[in-house]
Amino acid sequence: MSEFKRKDGRANNEIRPLKAEIGILKNADGSAYFEMGNTKVLAAVFGPREYHPKHEASLQEGIVRARYHMTPFSVKERKSPTLSRREIEISKLIKEVFNACIKRDLFPRTAIDVYIEVLNADGSTRVASINAVTLALVDAGIFLYDLVTAVSVGKVNGQLVVDLTGEEDQTGEADMPIAMMPSKKRVLLLQLDGELTYEEFNTLLNMGIEAINKIYEFQKTCLKSKLEEYLKAYGQI
Amino acid sequence: MKREIVLPGTLLATGENLKPGLYTFKEDISIYAGLLGLFEKDTVKNGEVINIIPLKGKYYPREGDNVIGIVVRTYLFSWLVDINSFVYATLPFSNAVKEKRKKKRKFELNLANYLSVGDVIYAKIVSFDRNSPPVLSLKEKKGLGKVTSGYLITMSPAKIPRLIGKKSSMINMIREKLGIKIIVGRNGRVIAFTDDLNKIEILKKIIEKIELESHTSGLTDRIKMFLEESKNV
Questions:
Q1: How many A/B residue pairs have CB atoms within 8 Å?
Q2: Is A187 inside any structural domain?
Q3: Is B197 exposed, middle or buried (0-12, 13-18, 19+ CB in 10 A)?
Q4: Residues of B with Cβ-Cβ distance to A182 under 8 angstroms
Q5: Least CB-CB distance to A147: which of B8, B158, B215?
Q6: Minimum distance, in Å, between the CA of residue A222 and any CA atom of chain B
Q7: Alpha-carbon distance A139 to A65, whole Å?
Q8: Cross-strand bridge partners of residue A18
Q9: In a structure prediction context, what are the per-residue pLDDT tens digits for chain B, which is 233 residues long?
Q10: Is residue A8 part of a domain?
Q11: Within-domain flag for B201
Q12: A212 neighbors A143 (Cβ within 8 angstroms)
């Protein structure tokens, strides 16, 4: 089984090359750019700020609002810029993921607005979006219980694989995005599209957790690298 | 003093008697960080509050803080003030104006005569809890009130403690070297009272430097050197 290589030459449990940049948008309170192979996502966070309309605000806690949007040029054929059913659905689940990991009771009656633009789509966009938003939230200085890291796993041509590309997603038998708080080992999102046996599900979940830990380490180094440079320059570490 | 960069979810300390601070949280008996910040490991003592120095984030209002606000709306008997936080603060008429309001002539009162939209005020937060927005006052001490001249500079609220320094050492040094009056609001706003654009330019550069290097030690000395260098030019 280890002989098998995927179309892009990756091993089954190998994730695509990652790239990230933090704090690239000046007008937003926090922002991040995240790349997983050819999937490129831009996330901006505003807030906590006043909730409008006010009657929808919660007196107990702040509320996360998310807007996941694919740019018209993100796919091969032009995508209509209006929010499709799929985008509204993904917006909702991203909102729920981050409602669970932010300490919201510090900011009653407020909104935390999260905007996500998919610049280039090649599978696993919701997962890349979640990774990008986490970085943007830390950049904005919002109280999180833990970073959130996500990865998609699936079954393609009978093989259990990690980090699906767009093609694998379309031709595969099943795909399963997972989002977790890695250091607390809590699952925040788990969707499954397709059919898996019980054993397959278990191995995929473990493969996903393994991949999530890799991405988690990457996220941590991204957030720390700039600060560490300064601290080292002045001999603080 | 060794410092460590911590991220949300980083384990800070474990112990029965530890208490979480404003930027940390407790789960079972462990304290975790909630923000990107710096943590001094040597400071952990039993029964004490464990906190971190945040490096980012919006201003979180606290009682007793001096802030610089901008009036955004006038109501019948109060003003709504933007204090660069996640909530607007209110400034009641009685906290702003010394003379007593004559009850009979209540309806002749026009708040716009005292403060109007866009005015900048230097105020103190007298109360704030989760259930109501922060309440400001201009009567708490001398020096508070409407700001009618000066140059407003904004910076990251998380870096303000560094601009002030230990026992105001940094800000007093800057005031002394530049020879101008500067007021600092905890909410990330600074006003310099001068018409000398060169001095404002120097102050802006200092603030930029502090924002970049806030988490390093010996900053006051470096700012001092920087000030002396820029004076010679």
A1: 95
A2: yes
A3: exposed
A4: 9
A5: B8
A6: 11
A7: 17
A8: A36
A9: 677 889 999 999 888 888 888 899 999 889 999 999 888 877 677 677 888 888 888 899 999 999 999 999 998 889 999 999 998 999 998 888 876 666 655 556 777 788 999 999 999 999 998 788 899 999 888 889 999 999 999 999 988 988 998 889 899 999 998 899 999 999 999 999 998 899 999 999 999 888 888 777 778 888 888 888 887 66
A10: no
A11: yes
A12: no
The complex's ipTM works out to 0.89
Q: Which residues of A141-176 are buried (b: 16+ CB within 10 A; e: fewer)?
A: bbbbbbbbbbbbbbbbeeebbbbbbbebbeebebbb
Would A6 be classed as within a structural domain?
no
Nearest CA to CA, how far is B40 from chain A (Å)? 11
> Domain boundary residue among B16, B31, B54?
B54
**Disruptive mutation site among B4, B36, B88 for chain A (greatest number of A CBs within 10 Å):** B36
Domain extent for B195: 151-232
Q: Is residue A5 part of a domain?
A: no
Which residues of A are less than 8 Å from B34 in CB distance?
Answer: 103, 143-145
Residue B38 belongs to some domain of the structure: yes
Domain count, chain B: 3
The answer to whether B212 contacts A223, with C-beta atoms less than 8 Å apart, is: no
CATH code, A151: 3.30.230.70
Chain B contact for A198 (CB, 8 A cutoff): no
Please tell me which of the candidates A141, A224, A236 has its beta carbon nearest to residue B56: A141
